[in-house]
Amino acid sequence: MTAAAPAGDPFAALGDPNRRAIVALLGSGERAVGELADSLPISRPAVSRHLRLLKEAGLVVEARHGTRRIYRLDDEGLESVAAFLTLAWGEAAARFRLVAENTEPAEKSRPS
User: pLDDT over 90 for what percent of the chain?
Assistant: First the structure.
C-alpha cells in the first residue's frame, strides 16, 4: 500500500517567505512550534498555520510528545521537490554548460 499524495502543492507552500524560513530552520533538526516562533518575526498561531500548510504539502511531519507537537522535515516530500528541480534544471544546466563551453570569451576592451 502506498502513501497518499499530499493535498497541497509543495511549490505553492514554499512560495511564502515565512514557510521557507520554517523549512530552513527545520533543516537543522526537529523543533516545537514555540521554538520556531521564537526564531521568527511571527506569532505562534501564525507559525502553526504555516506548519499546517507545509504538512498538507507533504514537506513536514509532526509527532506528539506529551502536550507538545514536534515538527521535522518530511524526507519523502523534499525528495520529490528535489527530483522535480533536478529534472527541470538539469536540462537547462546542461544547455547552459554547452553554450558556455562553445562560446569565445569577449575580448576585453583596452583603453587607448
Answer: 66
